[in-house]
Amino acid sequence: MSFLEYCKNLPESDPDANRLRMLLSPKTDENLEEMARTAREITLRNFGRTIQLYTPMYLSNYCENECVYCGFRSGVKVKRSKLSLEEVEKEAQYISSTGLKHILILTGESEKHSPVSYLEDCVKVLNKYFCSIAIEVYPLTDEGYRTLINAGVDGLTLYQEVYDQHIYSDLHPAGPKRDYLFRLNAPERAAEQGIRTLNIGALLGLAEWREEMFFTGLHAKYLQDRYPEVEMSISVPRMKPFGGDFKPLCEVSDRDLVHAILALRIYLPRVGITLSTREDSLLRNNLVHLGVTKMSADTTTAVGGHTATGEASETVQFGISDDRSVDEVKAMLRESGFQPVLKDWINTSK
Amino acid sequence: MKDIFNAGGKELTSRFFLGTGKFSEKSLVGDVIRASGAEVVTVALRRIDSGSKEENILNYIPEECTLMANTSGARNAEEAVRIARLARAAGCGDWIKIEVIPDNKYLLPDNAETLKATEILSAEGFKVFPYMNPDLVAARKLEDAGAAAVMPLGAPIGSNRGFRTKEIVRIIVQEIKIPVIVDAGIGRPSEAAECMEMGCSAVLANTAISTAGDPVGMARAFAQAIEAGRLAYLSGKPAREFTARASSPLTGFLRNSGRD
Q1: pTM here?
Q2: ipTM of this model?
Q3: In this complex, which of A50, A342, A346 lies closest to B73 when CB atoms are compared?
């Protein structure tokens, strides 16, 4: 049964789903402090006083999609570029010199410019520098995932963006991303091929956040139940302003974001929660106490942005709100009583 | 007489094994070891960053400690075996704690795959310490496969729920000859003491110590509780009675009637 069928067949009285609804409901907002204490305690027991660090590496921003909320979408006049393997190596050398051993590679959706074979070549270069390579690219077929896992990829990050199918359809008017189900079922395809970690999420701001977080939590639970061998995690990205005129369809305040994180943590005690630099340093400093287990550091959303200069800035997808270096994030974590974990995997098949 | 604990071909005086994965500072591990007198420390190979002096946890573990690398992340016997071999090649010695966990929801181990890995690694000369679901038959098979000890869980990892599996662990302690080391779930020193009073050979703790307000103090408390529990076991714990009983309520009539 696919996740969509699972949702359709979910009885209204399902106690587990209702628990998540209750955790996310406006009524529990007044108990936020109590929820925060519970979430913190659950996180400490399950993950200890540690936060894992990673950084994204943008390989290419060619894109055939027209996501109306995205600065990289097809038709938007931004400079398009794609890293050569030499440039990938240069980025890798720089990033690994900061001590990071976990990397997340990203591309826009373009079979033509960033096909699986290109990603495979990049992964082979990155294997020399990193102990864990995750991908955040367009959804692939079984074969695509198999190829990349065999090449050395061990993690998949894929946001559904928005679980509401009507809104999804409105926001993705053209391009391969219009196929809601192909995207929704992608984490399972990767799990079937033996991926080690899955990270899912909804882009907060595209639809009513409580509903979106409800389906995100349910989706994570569904995947965890079916693939217990996979390490699950959830991201909670909030819409960031970009060059265009898209306005978020739903305001998500800091308090709402905190509420979402706490509800997910309490509902899924063993699932990781990933926090990107979309959020500013002050908020990130505070969120480490509430359930977050993974954070990015020293980030850029520009293609080759870690090492390129000048023109690279024209390929920025969205502005980040926390530009601290790896050392600065490490120092913040230590001050907050957390051990920054730079290495937490060993890929024995390499 | 000195109470020496023989495990993996070594003579240990401390029966407190320490896990290292959840501390706020790697340097704290050294302080905790020194305060508690722990002689065996387990480290996940996946966390060892040998390329970085500052980030390498091994640099914080006193030399006199015995390192027991663990196969955290392995989902089957094959992956556990590969990690164990990598650990030995990386200079982590031949003590290996096998963790085969195909379940990320509860972190419960797979005894069948653990047994396979134990057979292979024991034959390769490793001192194998398998983490297991408490099960007498599995424990006997691990013993036959050459395990240096068995490490049944007290409760799921990180749960701090205490010694929930005690009835089964008690049977394992009585029935097998290799050391029984309770690993996981022990949340308080008193629960560690209970394991030892029962006759377990040692206790491994991590979460209870690393997430305590004062990890060094808590480690010391665990060490003392483990010592106290061991002494109680060696001293022959008196049997428990909950209520006072008349001396012979069922056969007293014999005496009263002169038929005794």
Answers
A1: 0.89
A2: 0.81
A3: A346
